[in-house]
Amino acid sequence: MRSLFYYLAVPAILLSACQSGAVNETAQTTTAYAEAADSIAFPNDMALLHSPSRKRVRSADVRCRVNNVLQATSLLEHTVSGMNGMIVESSIRNEYGATRDMPYTRDSLKRVRLYTPTASLTLRIPVSGLDSVVHLLTGTAAFIEYRTLREQDKTLDYLSNALRNNETPATVKPDKKNTALDIATYEDIRKDRKIDRQIANLGIQDDTHYATFSVELFQPAAADVVTIVHPGQIIRPAFGKEFSSALLNGLDVCRSILLFFVRLWPFLLLLLAGWIGYKKLKNLRF
């Protein structure tokens, strides 16, 4: 029994030790990543405008027409994934135009609907590969509506945050004007602002390493033609019912005409009286 307990306990202890080591290593990596946001040790001369150590943020926007939106979108996605980039957003949709129904057969119609396929992509690309991806897209485009390249220097913003975080804060002690609660509140605010500056610098570093590429694609309008059932033929009754309905409708017409003349009996009576009077006057003259 003791030997069995021994054989079970030893692997459990080793597994626990491995997990503890992995947690410690992850914590150290996270700490080093956060501390890098406050580093002001640059390996190259910062005075040079094109120094590799400067924090230059690149981005690009392109809107163009392609022959096939789906193929162009897939090409961009595969290219960016192969460069260890990230597809932030990729959306394909159709913008619909006019729709028209045209006669086709006795009981069917041809429905023609115009549509324009479009795509919208937001890509994060390693900055060294941005130009290659832009040239790949513009080289396959049939028409370029616009192409915009941007490069912003965030070096001074990065240095401002790093120098403030590296500055040793003054020690504040309680006195008549500042209580211990006021000092604790001040320390919390100072720590929060330091964290905000660290996060801002980490964002600058990420933007320096990965460029943002916004793409809008569209292709010439196409027509979607489908055969649909003629609604009028579906709701049309059978011949027997339609014949009986027509017969009844004819009887209704006759009834309406008869009732119309019946309603005119006063005028008919006056017309008859006038005709009789005219006959009598004519006989008296002769």
Structure notes:
There is one protein chain. Strands 1, 2, 3, 4, 5 and 6 form a six-stranded mixed sheet that branches. Helix 4 runs antiparallel to helix 5. This protein is α+β, with helices and mostly antiparallel strands and about 290 residues long. The termini are far apart. The chain contains eight helices and six strands. It has a domain of about 170 residues. The longest helix has about 35 residues. The radius of gyration is 43 Å and the shape is elongated.
Structural key phrases:
6-stranded mixed sheet, 8 helices
Which helices and strands occur, and which strands form pairs?
Elements: H1 2-35, E1 56-65, H2 69-82, E2 86-105, E3 108-126, H3 130-140, E4 143-153, H4 155-166, H5 180-209, E5 210-218, E6 222-229, H6 231-234, H7 239-263, H8 265-285
Parallel strand pairs: 1-5
Antiparallel strand pairs: 1-4, 2-3, 3-5, 3-6
Helix pairs in contact: 4-5
Which residues sit in consecutive blocks of at least 5 with pLDDT less than 50? 4-9
C-alpha-based Rg, rounded: 43 Å
Beta fraction = 25-35%
Number of strands: 6
* Portion of residues within helices: 40-55%
Give the averaged pLDDT, no decimals: 81
User: How many strands, which pairing sense, and closed or not: the largest β-sheet?
Assistant: 6 strands, mixed
